[in-house]
Fold this protein.
Amino acid sequence: MAYTTMKKLIANQNIKYKNGAVDADSYKMWKNSTMNKLDVFLTCDRITQTQYEELLVLLLDV
């Protein structure tokens, strides 16, 4: 469930950024927060290493 939810959240935030609804600084702050959450999910075995890596690839380089 954590994987599916995070995948949707990342996709939605990426769309907002690409449409200009979110600026680069806001996206960077959100990205850092999201990466911290993914680290916790991985540590607590809520997602697998493979899922973790798949989600990291979805995050944009801004």
In short: The chain is about 75% helix and 0% strand. Residues 23-62 form one domain. Helices lie at 2-18, 24-43, 49-58. The two ends are 27 Å apart (CA to CA).
